[in-house]
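Preliminary data (for renewal application), adenosine-5'-diphosphate complex.
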Amino acid sequence: MSRLVVASNRVADLSVAKQSGGLAVAVGEALRQRGGVWFGWSGDVVEDGEPDVPTTTSLDNVTTVTVPLSRSEFENYYHGFANRTLWPVCHYRLDLAEFSNEFLESYRHTNARFAAEIEKLLLPDDILWIHDFHLIPLGSELRKRGVTQRIGFFLHIPFPPIEILTATPEHEWLIDSIFAYDLVGFQTQTDLNNFKRYLLQLGNTTFLPLDRLICGDRELTAGVFPVGIDADHFAEVAHSPQSDRIVESMKVRDPGLALIIGVDRLDYSKGLPERVRAFERLLELHPEWRNAASLMQVAQPTREDVDAYVDIREELERLTGAINGRYGNFDWTPVRYINRSVERDRLAAIFRASRIGLVTPVRDGMNLVAKEYVVAQDPDDPGVLVLSKFAGAAETLTEALIVNPFDTDEVAEALHAALIMHQSERKHRNYALRTKINNFDVFKWQKDFLTALEHSRTSYLIPERT
Ligand code: ADP
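Predicted structure:
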């Protein structure tokens, strides 16, 4: 088995990976099985003149190598091209995208710098797995330096339709750089189709069976690899003695209250204002839920120095205040808004105690909260997942109540249907969803991707192999 070299924006602390979510665990497992290196940003920013040397930590056969960003890289590469340009473009929000040459140059330059660092770490037989939108051109920068090993790239966020992508300056350069990889993975068939439609329109790609794509002298395989969660572990956490205690105390505090739970980073892609409006509409259309149902929204602050995030937070706070002022009373708060991060075991318990998991992004690569909510349920008396059709997860989680988050009435009616749904139907839906989530967990995702990478045809055969 080849040694694995992973590059991603951030690197997990492998000694506490269980707490940092499924992805870190799955990538950590692959690294431990094969031995290897995990490279990424340390999270530190150094000012001009300060040393920017990599930090190396080893645990058994796995080494993590992290580098700081300079102040200018942090502003222009990370908060610039990644967060202010690519994130909105890939989430279909051209209106929020900012374009600047400074951002683009820093993005190129930082990826080139990372490539130089990674090259020093490589052995001839390694395979490389690069993650996400921060690092799209990393593969082509490595190729420029003569790296011939197999390299795979996985995009965790949506791939936008051609009409949106072509509005992005230098999009040809960006997409062309994907052809430096041997395998490119997307979350959904929609994303892969968007990628192929873009290539079709550009007209310089030959399409072979099994999603093999030829562009010039390069061959690339494309595939769909929907990311999963560490389903067994999350279900276990949701049913631990500590979770039992949390669930029990929640029931005692609010006997008979039907809780609707939303858990997200406070991002404009998550459809949070739309969600609060839909809950308000439920109270208008079905007044029997006044005093009887509450929406608990846990919204973790994120990217707070980007204007669009300040705006979405203000809008959410305004809406929450308005609905609580209009409907709330001494005994009942319609919307409970919690603006912070919550520990995973508490989160799992809150999911379990909630009658509805309300996941309504206006655009999302996958959405792992939807999967976590399902596996946290008590299989004999589960809650119902109400899921936006614009979450990648909706492509497979078809037994959820699938809604259009922009259609306030439709979401309100889905909430009502979920609240009155008979136990037998809830069990049937939960079982079907849980089976899919268990069968396609994050470990399978990792294995499927790496197997496909090892079997991908490559035009960059290393000398020993030819
Ligand atoms: P994204 O990657 O866009 O943030 P996902 O739903 O795919 O969205 O993954 C989010 C992860 O972060 C999930 O594992 C979820 O449980 C966790 N998370 C989201 N919001 C919070 C929060 N407020 N507190 C703790 N964990 C959170």
